């Protein structure tokens, strides 16, 4: 796992100032993520999940505690950390190829190496043949594939995913979950997924971190001891999912819509034919 990073968070506290008053957002966050691990983070709105990702990516630096990647304290953004948001944020005036190339714009590579890296990652996300397509010609699922390719092109040590499939329909979301697992297995990098979808968290994660709000803190961390590919309809899968829902407790039921509405495709459905339709 050449590009897998170790993330360690210790005693993390974050607050904002609102009308002259301190508003705690994160409190006493301690978390270690091992190289090549896939960790899902769930919790109701307002528990600080996205704020935590912003701190890890380096978009904010005003906090107490310690955030380290491979032993080095995180200060500002860097190519060793990639991120994919719920909105794909593609540049509409650039083709698929050029959008992915943005990911290696500042990489220490020759022009030939950059072109090869872009080609490899477009193929990795299943978009070979769409290199010259424009964003407006792509579906939502295809656009997110481009965003993932762009984030991976710089070969980061860790990839952060902030509700990457939240705006997609159930079938597209289920298929892209499968594709994301394939990409993770292929690339071998560390991934952190923030999601409201408990089923998605269990389907993808080696562990599920459950957060509770105001201020955001870790309620519990549950292992997912299930081999891949995971069967969403199995009793073992349901047991882990129910354990996560139990940990969410009152906070989970308060946000029952996004937390308790799993996006599942029929177990026997062959989604392979959707490769270029999503």
Radius of gyration: 19 Å
User: Which oligomeric state applies?
Assistant: single chain
What's the CATH architecture of the largest domain?
3-Layer(aba) Sandwich
Strand numbers in spatial order across the main sheet: 6-7-8-3-9-10
Cα distance spanning the termini:
29 Å
The CATH superfamily name of the largest domain is: P-loop containing nucleotide triphosphate hydrolases
Average pLDDT level? 88
* DSSP strand content: 15-25%
Structural class: alpha/beta
**Biggest β-sheet description:** 6 strands, mixed
Please state the overall shape, judged from the principal axes of the Cα atoms: globular
Helix content: 25-40%
Overall domain count:
2
Question: How many strand units?
Answer: 10
Number of helices in the DSSP assignment? 8
CATH topology of the largest domain, what is it called? Rossmann fold
């Amino acid at each position: 796992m050449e590009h897998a990073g170790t993330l360690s968070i210790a005693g993390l506290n974050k607050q904002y100032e609102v009308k002259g008053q301190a508003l705690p957002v994160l409190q006493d966050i301690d978390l270690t993520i091992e190289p090549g691990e896939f960790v899902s983070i769930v919790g109701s709105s307002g528990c600080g999940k996205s704020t935590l990702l912003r701190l890890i990516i380096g978009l904010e630096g005003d906090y107490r505690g310690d955030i380290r990647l491979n032993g080095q304290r995180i200060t500002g953004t860097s190519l060793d950390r990639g991120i994919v948001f719920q909105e794909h944020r593609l540049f509409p005036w650039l083709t698929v190829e050029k959008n992915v190339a943005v990911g290696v714009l500042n990489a220490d590579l020759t022009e030939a190496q950059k072109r090869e890296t872009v080609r490899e990652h477009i193929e990795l996300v299943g978009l070979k043949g769409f290199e010259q397509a424009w964003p407006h010609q792509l579906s939502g699922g295809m656009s997110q594939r481009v965003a993932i390719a762009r984030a991976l092109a710089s070969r980061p040590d860790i990839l952060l995913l902030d509700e990457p499939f939240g705006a997609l329909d159930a079938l597209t979301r289920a298929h892209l979950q499968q594709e994301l697992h394939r990409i993770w297995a292929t690339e071998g990098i560390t991934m952190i997924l923030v999601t409201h979808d408990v089923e998605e968290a269990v389907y993808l994660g080696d562990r599920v971190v459950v957060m509770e709000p105001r201020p955001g803190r870790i309620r519990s961390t549950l292992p997912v001891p299930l081999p891949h590919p995971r069967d969403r309809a199995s009793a073992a899968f349901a047991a882990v999912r129910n354990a996560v829902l139990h940990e969410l407790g009152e906070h989970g039921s308060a946000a029952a819509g996004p937390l308790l509405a799993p996006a599942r495709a029929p177990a026997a459905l062959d989604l392979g034919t959707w490769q270029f339709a999503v």
